[in-house]
């Protein structure tokens, strides 16, 4: 627990985690207990039990996912692309160490293989043991864990996947390359002729530049590019964006969504592409 | 500026506002300058210039609205009801001291009278002078400012308004009564036979109990009750809810929304009623 003290302060009798990666905004969470704290070769990994958000995965001091709202992000980045592709059989997940995306993809019986490429095995271990609300204690035999660099992995694949889901953290540290044009070029090559991909493209409020860059990269590679949003309470700005690049399929083909979910339903699948005025304007000319 | 020091801390060379009204979550905003700080008979009123959110209205140390996202809330609580009522002529706003709702309502030429009942004149004065990005420096002659208790005002009116907008702060302090059943009964009486009302009904994530209570109250009074949501980045949980109680009109009648707005458009008017699964489930049996 050597680096715990860098991130967790004791104030009176209370423990607090303060996220201060942003220069002008600090968010502090009151914490019941530090359940796990260890450094990997890539980053510092903690699982905390918090008062308002339940258990949380914290990487380098920044909250990544929580028991209270982790399902929103994981359901949205999974069920939207899987409701557009009519027959996804082979799925690649890049990142997604909390295992929540893999858990959602496993709800599709027609999916035969799920390659999950996460650079940091320690994140997966910690989430499987201490964050079952998000990871679901994943033991589905279709999931093939590969603890290697997703950027290198993608560069070696061709015409192999129906759907690729890029579940990255913010574009700093280990995830920086997951927002580069070269990476998207490789993903495009790794997809089958009728394949599609989705990536998280950050907050439309605070990272509109990143969003526009991701959208532009995908728009230059795919005939179909679509942006959708969801509300993720623990991410700055509340509103979060996802961008789809697709070779062939464009619309939600599901007419009666019936997976067991807490956030996604038929209304959300259809409504999530309806963008506010400032965001529609931001995409013009990209 | 007697109470400023209670809310604003100097850390090194920087000023910070820390919202700590919640027991387990603190949000701190780096502040450039305190532009206004004064106590009214009802609350402490500040206008701050912040780094990430521009100018902000802060009541009793809690951020109410900001230059960067205040328009989202104000557009959503105004244009949705005014796009459902086919001919709103007389509108009552209760609360709304930042004047942003009145500003949006003024965009409707068929509206002849806007009674704005705000208990705290100091909020209006401060916002008109220091927060023009939100208040719009309102000078429309159709707006009739009444600096009196909205609860008492509503109790004396009958069959008078086409649309009532309740733009309250949180259900603590001066706004507590704006969430009571008795208040809604009075608003129902103050509406014309085909009138409708809307209130902000807090965060579906953190205040689901308040949301359900507001919804139940309105459902017991009106034949039509509808919930919709928007993303308001500076409110806890990001997702915010609004509840409509309507005597007659149910659906958006506008087919080509064209007011000058930054958030609301035709897509948002139609999409905002599409609720996530947990929220649809929460409203069953209310």
Automatic annotation (TrEMBL), chains A, B:
<keyword id="KW-0808">Transferase</keyword>
<feature type="binding site">
    <location>
        <begin position="149"/>
        <end position="150"/>
    </location>
    <ligand>
        <name>S-methyl-5'-thioadenosine</name>
    </ligand>
</feature>
<comment type="similarity">
    <text>Belongs to the spermidine/spermine synthase family.</text>
</comment>
<dbReference type="InterPro" id="IPR030373">
    <property type="entry name" value="PABS_CS"/>
</dbReference>
<comment type="pathway">
    <text>Amine and polyamine biosynthesis; spermidine biosynthesis; spermidine from putrescine: step 1/1.</text>
</comment>
<dbReference type="InterPro" id="IPR029063">
    <property type="entry name" value="SAM-dependent_MTases_sf"/>
</dbReference>
<keyword id="KW-0620">Polyamine biosynthesis</keyword>
<feature type="domain" description="PABS">
    <location>
        <begin position="14"/>
        <end position="247"/>
    </location>
</feature>
<dbReference type="GO" id="GO:0004766">
    <property type="term" value="F:spermidine synthase activity"/>
</dbReference>
<comment type="subunit">
    <text>Homodimer or homotetramer.</text>
</comment>
<dbReference type="InterPro" id="IPR030374">
    <property type="entry name" value="PABS"/>
</dbReference>
<feature type="binding site">
    <location>
        <position position="43"/>
    </location>
    <ligand>
        <name>S-methyl-5'-thioadenosine</name>
    </ligand>
</feature>
<comment type="function">
    <text>Catalyzes the irreversible transfer of a propylamine group from the amino donor S-adenosylmethioninamine (decarboxy-AdoMet) to putrescine (1,4-diaminobutane) to yield spermidine.</text>
</comment>
<dbReference type="Pfam" id="PF01564">
    <property type="entry name" value="Spermine_synth"/>
</dbReference>
<keyword id="KW-0745">Spermidine biosynthesis</keyword>
<dbReference type="InterPro" id="IPR001045">
    <property type="entry name" value="Spermi_synthase"/>
</dbReference>
<protein>
    <recommendedName>
        <fullName>Polyamine aminopropyltransferase</fullName>
        <ecNumber>2.5.1.16</ecNumber>
    </recommendedName>
</protein>
<dbReference type="InterPro" id="IPR037163">
    <property type="entry name" value="Spermidine_synt_N_sf"/>
</dbReference>
<feature type="binding site">
    <location>
        <position position="118"/>
    </location>
    <ligand>
        <name>S-methyl-5'-thioadenosine</name>
    </ligand>
</feature>
<feature type="active site" description="Proton acceptor">
    <location>
        <position position="167"/>
    </location>
</feature>
<feature type="binding site">
    <location>
        <begin position="167"/>
        <end position="170"/>
    </location>
    <ligand>
        <name>spermidine</name>
    </ligand>
</feature>
<feature type="binding site">
    <location>
        <position position="174"/>
    </location>
    <ligand>
        <name>S-methyl-5'-thioadenosine</name>
    </ligand>
</feature>
<dbReference type="Pfam" id="PF17284">
    <property type="entry name" value="Spermine_synt_N"/>
</dbReference>
<feature type="binding site">
    <location>
        <position position="98"/>
    </location>
    <ligand>
        <name>spermidine</name>
    </ligand>
</feature>
<dbReference type="InterPro" id="IPR035246">
    <property type="entry name" value="Spermidine_synt_N"/>
</dbReference>
């Amino acid at each position: 627990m050597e680096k715990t003290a860098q991130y967790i302060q004791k104030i009176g009798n209370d423990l607090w985690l303060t996220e201060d990666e942003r220069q002008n905004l600090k968010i502090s969470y009151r914490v019941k207990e530090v359940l796990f704290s260890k450094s990997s070769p890539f980053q510092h990994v903690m699982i905390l039990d918090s008062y308002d958000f339940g258990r949380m995965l914290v990487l380098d001091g920044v909250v990544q996912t929580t028991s209270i709202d982790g399902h929103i992000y994981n359901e949205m980045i999974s069920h939207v692309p899987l409701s557009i592709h009519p027959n996804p059989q082979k799925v690649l997940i890049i990142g997604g160490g909390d295992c929540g995306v893999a858990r959602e993809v496993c709800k599709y019986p027609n999916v035969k293989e799920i390659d999950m490429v996460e650079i940091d095995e320690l994140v997966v271990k910690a989430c499987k043991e201490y964050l079952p609300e998000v990871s679901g204690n994943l033991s589905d035999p279709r999931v093939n864990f590969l603890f290697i660099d997703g950027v290198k992995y993608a560069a070696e694949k061709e015409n192999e996947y129906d759907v690729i889901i890029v579940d990255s953290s913010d574009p700093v540290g280990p995830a920086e390359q997951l927002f580069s044009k070269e990476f998207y070029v490789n993903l495009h090559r790794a997809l089958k002729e009728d394949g599609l991909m989705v990536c998280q493209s950050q907050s439309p409020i605070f990272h509109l530049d990143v969003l526009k860059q991701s959208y532009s990269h995908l728009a230059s590679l795919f005939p179909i590019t679509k942006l959708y949003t969801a509300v993720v309470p623990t991410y700055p700005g509340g509103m979060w964006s996802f961008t789809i690049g697709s070779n062939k399929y464009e619309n939600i083909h599901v007419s009666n969504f019936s997976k067991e979910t807490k956030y996604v339903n038929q209304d959300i699948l259809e409504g999530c592409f309806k963008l506010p005025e400032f965001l529609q304007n931001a995409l013009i000319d990209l």
